[in-house]
Specification:
Two copies of one chain form a homodimer.
Chain A (H helix, E strand, L loop, with lengths): L9 H6 L3 H9 L3 H8 L4 H10 L2 H10 L2 H10 L2 H10 L2 H10 L2 H10 L2 H10 L17 E2 L5 H11 L3 H5 E5 L5 E6 H6 L17 E2 L4 H9 L5 E5 L5 E6 H19 L14 H28 L1 H6 L1 H5 L1 H24 L8 H34 L6 H32 L9 H24 L5
Parallel strand pairs in A: 1-2, 4-5
Antiparallel strand pairs in A: 2-3, 5-6
Chain lengths: 459, 459
Amino acid sequence: MNPMLAMIDLEALIESRNFNAVREQTRNWSAADLAELMEPLSVEKAAVVFRLLPREQAADVFSYLSEDHQERLLKALGREDVANILNAMSPDDRTSLLEEMPSNAVQHLISLLSAEERAVALKLLGYEEDSIGRLMTTDFVRIRPHWTITYALDHIRRYGKDSETMSMIYIIDNDDKLIDDLRIRQLLLAKPDDKVADLMDSRFTALKATDNREVAVAAFRDTDLSALPVTDNKDNLIGIVTIDDVFDVAEEEATEDIQKIGGSEALDEPYMKIAISKMVQKRATWLVILFISEMLTATAMGKFEDEIAKAVVLSIFVPLVISSGGNSGSQASTLIIRAMALDEISLADWWRVMRREFFSGLSLGSILGVIGFARIIAWHYFFGAYGEHWFLLALTVGLALVGIVLWGSLSGSMLPFLLKRVGLDPATSSAPFVATLVDVSGLIIYFTVAGLILRGTLL
Amino acid sequence: MNPMLAMIDLEALIESRNFNAVREQTRNWSAADLAELMEPLSVEKAAVVFRLLPREQAADVFSYLSEDHQERLLKALGREDVANILNAMSPDDRTSLLEEMPSNAVQHLISLLSAEERAVALKLLGYEEDSIGRLMTTDFVRIRPHWTITYALDHIRRYGKDSETMSMIYIIDNDDKLIDDLRIRQLLLAKPDDKVADLMDSRFTALKATDNREVAVAAFRDTDLSALPVTDNKDNLIGIVTIDDVFDVAEEEATEDIQKIGGSEALDEPYMKIAISKMVQKRATWLVILFISEMLTATAMGKFEDEIAKAVVLSIFVPLVISSGGNSGSQASTLIIRAMALDEISLADWWRVMRREFFSGLSLGSILGVIGFARIIAWHYFFGAYGEHWFLLALTVGLALVGIVLWGSLSGSMLPFLLKRVGLDPATSSAPFVATLVDVSGLIIYFTVAGLILRGTLL
């Protein structure tokens, strides 16, 4: 103990209500020293000192107090003082405080934080980014089964903060375990002297705080409730998630998926607000990956350089033929990505999807193949184009199209499964990504078909 | 009048409570004839006849009655009888009935319909597909400003159907105009003898039934309410939209956008449920449009056939160079499409977006240009590839990439504006669509740059 501390009799100053002297005395001590000075004080006197301290200093001092003292002090301080201290505390100190508190106290303390601080607090409390814990609000009403309806309604009137809070009421047992939910209307219509327990059916849906927020989106998709309760691993009720927050999450998730499908990283900020340098960075990553992958087309084309030199006409159809594979692949992958996001398709469905895409790809390829074939025939008759082997060329393009579109549909639809299987986001199989993959394989299919059909004539 | 009708004295039969005879007599008459027979009856007696008629016949007869008689009869019949008749009426007859009724009666009648019939009824009442009117539910509670709190709460207990209905209470004036909304908590906390008017602040958000449902999505994005009131063109309250329905709409809209961005028509059905033939059709449309557009690449390549014949090495980089433009275009268009869907960007922002995309495109193009340039230099040094004019070739590819990526970003970002400006869905500027557009123009940029740099050497 700092020997100088012994000279300060805070207790006497407080008893004589000499608050200016307290301010003077406390101004220049370190937080750790002040905490030491306050430990022996009664909770009431310590609370007085806290109210006299500047906000930041109070928070600092508080974090140096023993857990026991902290807890008692929080009870003694008024709601506003606690809020001031908590909001001014450094996040890690606050987290260690919160980690030590019983779950109902944590919940109360978190509710005192500003929206920003609450987000931080919940983050540090161990809920991962994108977990339901982050979406939680602690503004909700919980009642006990043995209460009468009148008592419960009275409690709700006092503690229900807004209509969302009040539309669903949660029932907890003596261990704070969630045991049922009730619509407020059930309470309003019940006989005043009945017990809450009389209304219970023990059927309810609860979310886990540690689950991914997409689970919450799916849960709200399946229900018409405006709020769902959130429990911790011990099934204790620790918060609720309201549909308006989940609505925002669903919109964000869709935005992320769309941006990924478009071939960039998710921006995570509105287009008009994000710094151009940051946006370029997020777009450049994928653009460079795609560019480097697409370099394989140059390698593949290089392998077929002799064929091209012999039959320049073949190169003319390269962009047409390979882009068709990319297009059918983009269609397939985006359909699958979205169906996965909506829980319409799970990993186990890959075989059924593959069969669907086999038939779709074959049909689509045949349609494009016929059009491509007809295009070359027509240009031959009308413009005399494509030399003496026009028919074989038409056949090459037509058949290559069937193969490439089929291949595009299959690989475009299977890629999201593959990505999901290895734990990546299926939306990473963006339209440009699939197009790039299919471009490379499309070239190989095209020149292979050409080799088979045109060998001995053009090649 | 059918002369035989004169022989039937329904009135006498009803008065003598000879209901079997009424059934006998009414069985074989046409609906039009029976209606004529019933016109002179008192409303009470007509109601008795209706209850004796089989459901379908009752609905038919009802639709033949004069509007005046219909209205009086609806009032005389019990809720269940009215529901039976309404549900059994043919949709168009019902619509003409509803069109003639005062708005509060329409609302009451619609609430009697089954969910299916209600959807049909609302549709035929003139709300366009995708309008807010289609999303509306008529389960809501309205109170009057001069009521006491006690009376209002009593009314709510009686008519509030579920928690969603009850979280927001709407106040209407004597003309049924919406004049305010209240959270139920405000009512619960108010003094029982106060007037509803004492709580009013006349601040509320209302939706128009004729507005597009995307307006509802945007409105809920900006508020944390769980329901919003819907009014007709006279500001009369005709229903509410709840956030869970709007949640579904937002998900559907995102699905449509994603599917369009992927280059197919919106499926409108889950991927696993839609018939393959139907899916092929929806995908084929765009695939064929893209294929035919992409044919321009064959035309463009044909124009440069001489250049390719002289410098086959140029053709090797065609897929690489043009796909980069497509990729940057896909990125730009999807970012803009989503920002538009979220109301972050409006048509007026086109110039600001263009400036952003100019800088982004230039940066991205330079990055890819440098990589492309380096790739050719490297392959020259390591593999002795690309002949004596390797440096000029590297320069051609590098500079073409800058131009093509810049062009891709600009056209990809402006296309959604153009589509929106002419009243089409911006999401139509799908990744494959943009890629196709940029492929064609990319070829022209590439061979033009090649012509400028390689003239006199390779070309």
